Amino acid sequence: MSGAFAATVGRIENNLATVIRGKAASLRLVLISMLAGGHTLLEDVPGTGKTTLAKALARSVDGTFRRIQFTPDLLPADITGSSFYNPKEGSFVFRAGPVFTHVLLADEINRTSPRTQSALLEVMSERQVTVEGERRELPRPFFVVATQNPGDFHGTYPLPEAQLDRFTLAVSLGYPELEHELEILYGQNDRHPLDGLNPVVTCAEVNDLQDQVKLVRFDRAVAEYLLKLVEALRGDARLKLGISPRGSLALYRTAQARARVEGRDHVLPEDVRALAVPVLAHRIMLDTKSKYSGVLPRTIVDEALAKVPVPR
């Protein structure tokens, strides 16, 4: 990384590491998603730090932050906003919803109905809200961090395919190692580490980082390798739904971000390979037989990585 880029990314990583212990690889993935201008889905069992990570990232950026606690009674207007009648002025006034922010935490997103989940489709894809025929732009940067418990937990609704496809990558934190869990126990003796977390990067700096990522060179041979991986997955007979062009673009952009974070001005095949599972696996829809026979989407992606020749 260049000096300024490395220093900025390092400040964010160090800030997150004071709260989330022993999960450097997961933190790096979340940062790559943000640098690529995307959104992140954190999926894991309850209590592993998903919400804490999202809040830590939000507090690391000196911008606005909003949290939506998704519940079964939540309505689309509770997310995007709505118009109300102002009797003093004799007109309708738009009241902005919580999506008008820089960092949005969609907490336990799969505890609300698909109808309400769909309110985020336009928001995440086009970074705008259309209410009563009027389009309203969201601020930049705009980054959604959503958490969800596994789909077989009580009271959850599976995320629709269109919603999953809008998450740039999916990350699972997993349980901490013993030594790191000890740090978690002792680290909260007096107060929660989040209480002392301060912003270390401005919105303007985040925008600049995202602009720099787009300048990373992506050679044609590496781009063709990426698409051959996608084609191999689309042709897998065990899939009901393959990878969309949006998924290809997400892998393209995150590979650029990883290369930049690793200090390079060009993408290597290893960048594509390192991100294939977190970017592609959650987009795969298995057919019924494969789903109930225990096949995992990440296994199918790993098989494609082993089968498609790596360019020299």
CA distance, first residue to last residue: 24 Å
Radius of gyration, taken over Cα atoms and rounded to an integer in Å:
20 Å
CATH topology of the largest domain: Rossmann fold
The structural class is alpha/beta
The total number of structural domains is 2
Strand order of the largest sheet: 3-6-9-1-10
What's the main sheet like?
5 strands, parallel
**Count of beta strands:** 13
Strand content: 15-25%
Supply the number of helical segments: 14
Series of H and E elements: HHEHEEHEEEHHEEEHEHEHHEHHEHH
User: Mind telling me the CATH superfamily name of the largest domain?
Assistant: P-loop containing nucleotide triphosphate hydrolases
Query: What ranges have pLDDT less than 50 throughout 5 or more consecutive residues?
Result: none
Cα shape = globular
By CATH, the architecture of the largest domain is named 3-Layer(aba) Sandwich
The CATH class designation of the largest domain is: Alpha Beta
Q: What is the mean predicted local confidence, pLDDT?
A: 89
Kindly state the percentage of residues in helix. 40-55%
Structural key phrases:
5-stranded parallel sheet, Helicase, Ruva Protein, domain 3, 312 residues, 13 strands, Rossmann fold, 45% helix, 14 helices, alpha/beta, two-stranded parallel ribbon
Q: Your description of this structure?
A:
The protein is an alpha/beta fold and 312 residues long. The chain has two domains: 1-213, P-loop containing nucleotide triphosphate hydrolases (Rossmann fold); 216-312, Orthogonal Bundle (Helicase, Ruva Protein, domain 3). Helices cover 45% and strands 17% of the residues. The chain has 14 helices and 13 strands. Strands 3-6-9-1-10 form a five-stranded parallel β-sheet. The chain has a two-stranded parallel sheet with strand order 2-11. Strands 4-5 form a two-stranded antiparallel ribbon. The mean pLDDT is 89.
